Task: structure prediction
Amino acid sequence: MPDLRELYQEIILDHNRSPRNFRKIEEANRFAEGFNPLCGDHYYIYAVVEDGVLTDVSFDGAGCAISKASASLMTETLRGKTVEEADAVIAGYRGMVLGESGAAEHKDQLGKLVVFSEVGNYPTRVKCAILAWHTLHAALHQEQDTVTTE
Result:
């Protein structure tokens, strides 16, 4: 079994080369824009929420390998969840990446996202790893301002 650092590299490379759900959803009823001025990551998150369930989610834009892989995995993980479930996963992921106390209790619901716990070893990359997640949260709650990591 590969160690977490090797797995982290494999997942980042795979999702950067072949991002899942990298497209605009024309019929999206939730939308938000996110920008990381530190490294230039700039994404648009599209979502379809029907009866409180996130039935489709995607992203478009440009950014570094970590931000793109994070957004790609986010879309895979959250599709089909209720808004409340998505909020819980977003909070758990954010806590894990930031190394907040109590975040370990969410690891079981994060599945393969736990590889991003390694991002904390690279502090300049933390904002890259959480940009799409903050942006999706804004979209789900119909916040109008551009999400920024600053």
About this structure: The chain has a mean pLDDT of 90. Residues 83-98 form the longest helix (16 residues). The chain has five helices and four strands. The helical segments are 4-17, 65-78, 83-98, 107-110, 126-140.
